[in-house]
Amino acid sequence: MRKPRITLLHLIVALSVFSAAVAFANALFAAYNVQKEQLVATTLEANRAYAVKLAEVVDLYISSLQQQLKASAHRVPRIIDSPKALDEEALRLAAQTDGVIAAGMVDAAGKTIGYATLLPGAQAQGARISRIDLRGVAQERNVTPPFLSSQGIWTVVLTEPIRDVKGKYLGFVGAAIYLQRNTELDKLLQEHFYRDGSYVYVVGADGKILYHHEQKWIGTDQRNNHVVQALLRGESGSMPVTNSVGAEMLAGYARMRQGGWGVVVQRPVAATLEPLHGLMWQIFWYSIPAAIVMLLMVSAMGYWIARPLAVLARAMKSGDDAQAAPLIQSAKANYFEAEQLREAVGFTMALHQQQIGKLNAETMTDPLTGLLNRRGVASEISRLMSTREPFAVLALDLDHFKRVNDTFGHASGDQVLMALADIMRDSVRAEDASCRVGGEEFLVLMPGASKEAARDVAERIRQAIQAHRMPGEVGHVTISIGTARWPDDGSDSATVLKCADQALYQAKASGRNKVVAWTV
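Request: output the structure for the sequence above.
Response:
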């Protein structure tokens, strides 16, 4: 399994940075949304107020035109029998009224009785006013829906009924206004078209656009537009809306008193929020120095917290008491938990070493006799070979031990083995290692012993066992012993052990209860 490379310091710094980043991002997000809501609300209110103001201005303009038409309608009954006077009145009306490009009078039968136009190349006299499409207007003050004039320009006509002193309807006076091409209405509204995409448009009482900075939209039916629907209901206000090309806009709208028109002021949401995006970037860049200082402080604090734990971790990893103890002592416990952990690690390592020592002893000790087992023999021989110190080997085997087990049982046999182990311990030197390597097979390793000394110890053991009365009904037993010495009888430990075994077999073959030293 792959070991993790991430340290506690890394985790502390990462967690701190992550937490700070989340908090900072949340603060930016909250600030952005609050500012966004305020900008949107402010823009909606500004557009509404602006739409109301523009509606009042356009109302004043239309009202001024209507007043001039009304004054002209009062003059017409006095000159209705003079075509020349009527044409002159129409010319006067067209010339003195800002934005009017043509004016005329129509009698009750729908016949043009007076007409004048300021357009170059158009007939000034005798022309039928029907050419500007005034047929079918009501007998009341009216504003026609937009229509294309004979010159292909979107036009509206304002009308004022003509009545005599008795109130009889005699016809009407009409004035045509171009919705674009540098007219007064165009000048009033066109100056409010900005580079950021904001614009103004005017809709009529039938939901069709009367004025727009893009001529292609004039005359189009916008009754599906939520803002136009609100205007048709007679409302004024503001709302977010998606325009005809799918752009999100903030619209303010106001209903006019004249003709049931409505003025709409729109600004793109993107343009409204663009300053906010710049502000958020400024906040971000200005926050970087503070973030760096905070990161350094967090790193220093993380190092202060993690250092004692890292030292303790290295101590636990070393697995060597000699290396671990100084590391544990050098761990500066700067806070309560670290001090408690250091004490716990020290206690745990001491207990661990004690248990390891106990386990090592158990793994190398024969549980019945308490002598070294095969693992213990291998460890002791490895130690002797590493020091290159000569040593003697005694190979011991109880004579006819199987008969003891068969006759008196394994419990009695175990007692014999334990008695033999006690005799071996009493008969050898303190530095010698007594071992049980099989059922009734034993070894004695004697560091630095000569062949003669080894034979003497073997003989002493043989005699002691022969003379000892074993527990229970077993009575006396005998033992056969073979001896060998390293490096006299072999260049390696395996050869020497084999020589001792062969000497043991010779002792058994020659009658048992003997000590035989290996000779080449």
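The two ends are 55 Å apart (CA to CA).
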